[in-house]
Amino acid sequence: MFIENNNETLSVDYFNASTAEISCGIYTVNGMVLAEQQETALGGAHSCSFDLSQYPQGIYLLRLIVNGQAYTEKVAKK
Predict the structure, then answer these.
(1) Rg value, the chain, Cα
(2) Considering the entire predicted model, what is its pTM?
(3) Residue 5 pLDDT more than 90?
(4) Do 10 and 50 form a contact (C-beta atoms < 8 A)?
């Protein structure tokens, strides 16, 4: 998983080996969902992106779930 954050847009690039159920979302540190995308992705390289311009500065959580396996990273908006 590769994360690119320019404080306005958050982009996440990821690779899955085979077809998978994907959920990609941005959450507050209190667990409130700000944005979420879901798809069935074929094997290969994929990405999801979120517009952060409407949110204040702070720490957010990025969660990528692939076939039930969750990956979470903290993201700072400055």
Answers:
(1) 12
(2) 0.86
(3) no
(4) yes
H helices of 1-78, in order, are none
- pLDDT above 90: residue 29: yes
CA dist., res. 68 & res. 59, Å (int): 24
CA 1/CA 71 separation, integer angstroms: 9
Question: Which sign does the torsion angle of CA 11, 17, 23, 27 carry?
Answer: negative
Residue 77 half-sphere exposure toward CB, CA atoms < 13 A: 22
Give every CB contact of residue 69 below 8 A, 6+ residues apart in sequence. Answer: none
- Select from 28, 26, 45 the least CA-distant residue to 36: 26
